[in-house]
């Protein structure tokens, strides 16, 4: 090794060590998680407790980067305590690891909707082994690497500082990790009178989609459908991409309809936000509105460029409120964001605008 190579290696900063709080009522599980975490050079166990109350007390006195949370706890269960843990964590990401967090399980989607950064099924006694250890550490690394230099908490930007958006006839929203919680906040900020169609591409397995649609319908107070091929885009309804296909738009004589495709995307995601945004630009032009919420990676950045080139607006979630500022950050850092706001403020900004009457409300670019 040359001296120059040696100096170059020494100059590279080592990854910072992230502290983890384990919240699980099983002594065996706490010990097993502790061994896995402490065996790494990247993480350290800051504490291990058996109840939500003990976790809140710990977080009142200590700061950690990750809270590893079981859902089945005595006293206050993990789902009930999750919002309080997020608030007490002051930026800590809550990673749910529970036997109740299976793919497609209601509890899993509820945890994500409440703000959990990720979920993983906890193996039974004697199961999992090396494979579970690898997956757990990989997922922990993804969470801490997503925002390598988190910004300190700051008051949200004043909403009145941003002018109203140009008129639009449809809203298309893309999201991934942390996006369900953000999407919930955005939809709750829309009034019942808001009748512009809403499309949503959220990175989730197909097994989640029926329950996800039902939850969004409840939150938004409007019908929500899982997209089907040739489904018409209609006012006052939400349509979500299925877990197995991209959701595109096709121009019709009197509006627009859905087209499902499954080709490879630049981001590698299926469904991907990019095809939705690109087709939105083609069909609606400047009368489309794109929104990018919390998510890992850069999905949506290519489609956002197509929207801005067509004269449409793109609003993204701010870094302070994002679980992962990958997707919104990619748009904001490229200069393609019309506004950068917290999710509820995005909802209120959208609600200020109404589709203008006339031919444009038929839903296609003229």
UniProtKB/TrEMBL annotation:
Keywords: Chemotaxis, Cytoplasm, Hydrolase, Phosphoprotein
UniProt protein name: protein-glutamate methylesterase
Residue ranges of every copy of the CheB-type methylesterase domain listed in the record: 164-347
Positions annotated as active site in the UniProt record: 176, 203, 299
Pfam families registered for this protein in UniProt: CheB_methylest, Response_reg
SUPFAM superfamilies, A to Z: CheY-like, Methylesterase CheB, C-terminal domain
EC numbers on record: 3.1.1.61
Modified residues (4-aspartylphosphate): 70
Gene3D superfamilies xref list: 3.40.50.2300, Methylesterase CheB, C-terminal domain
UniProt keyword Plastid, yes or no: no
Enzyme class, broadest EC rank: hydrolase
Reactions catalysed, as given in the entry: [protein]-L-glutamate 5-O-methyl ester + H2O = L-glutamyl-[protein] + methanol + H(+)
Ranges of residues in domain Response regulatory: 19-137
Presence of the UniProt keyword RNA-binding in the record: no
Domain of life from the UniProt record: Bacteria
């Amino acid at each position: 090794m040359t001296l120059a190579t040696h100096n170059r290696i020494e100059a590279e900063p080592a990854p910072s060590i992230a502290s983890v709080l384990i919240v699980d009522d099983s002594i065996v599980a706490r010990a097993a998680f502790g061994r896995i975490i402490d065996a790494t050079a990247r993480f350290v166990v800051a504490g291990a407790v058996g109840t939500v109350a003990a976790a809140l007390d710990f977080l009142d006195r200590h700061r950690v980067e990750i809270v590893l949370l079981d859902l089945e706890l005595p006293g206050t269960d993990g789902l009930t305590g999750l919002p309080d843990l997020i608030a007490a964590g002051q930026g800590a990401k809550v990673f749910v690891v529970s036997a109740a967090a299976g793919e497609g399980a209601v509890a899993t989607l509820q945890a994500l909707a409440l703000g959990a950064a990720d979920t993983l099924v906890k193996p039974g006694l004697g199961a999992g082994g090396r494979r579970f250890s690898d997956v757990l550490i990989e997922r922990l690394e993804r969470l801490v690497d997503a925002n390598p230099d988190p910004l300190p908490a700051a008051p949200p930007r004043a909403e009145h500082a941003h002018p109203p958006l140009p008129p639009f006839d449809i809203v298309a929203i893309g999201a991934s990790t942390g996006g369900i919680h953000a999407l919930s906040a955005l939809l709750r900020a829309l009034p019942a009178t808001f009748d512009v169609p809403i499309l949503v591409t959220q990175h989730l397995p197909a097994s989640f989609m029926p329950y996800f649609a039902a939850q969004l319908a409840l939150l938004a107070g409007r019908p929500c459908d899982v997209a089907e091929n040739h489904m018409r885009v209609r006012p006052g309804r939400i349509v979500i991409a299925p877990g197995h296909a991209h959701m595109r738009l096709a121009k019709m004589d009197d509006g627009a309809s859905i087209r499902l495709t499954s080709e490879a995307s630049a981001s590698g995601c299926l469904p991907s936000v990019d095809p939705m945004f690109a087709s939105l630009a083609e069909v609606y032009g400047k009368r489309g509105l794109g929104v990018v919420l919390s998510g890992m990676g850069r999905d949506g950045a290519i489609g956002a460029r197509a929207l801005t080139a067509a004269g449409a607006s793109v609003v993204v979630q701010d870094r302070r409120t994002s679980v992962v500022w990958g997707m919104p950050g990619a748009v904001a850092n490229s200069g393609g964001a019309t506004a950068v706001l917290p999710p509820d403020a995005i909802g209120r900004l959208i609600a200020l605008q109404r589709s203008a009457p006339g031919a444009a409300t038929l839903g296609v670019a003229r």
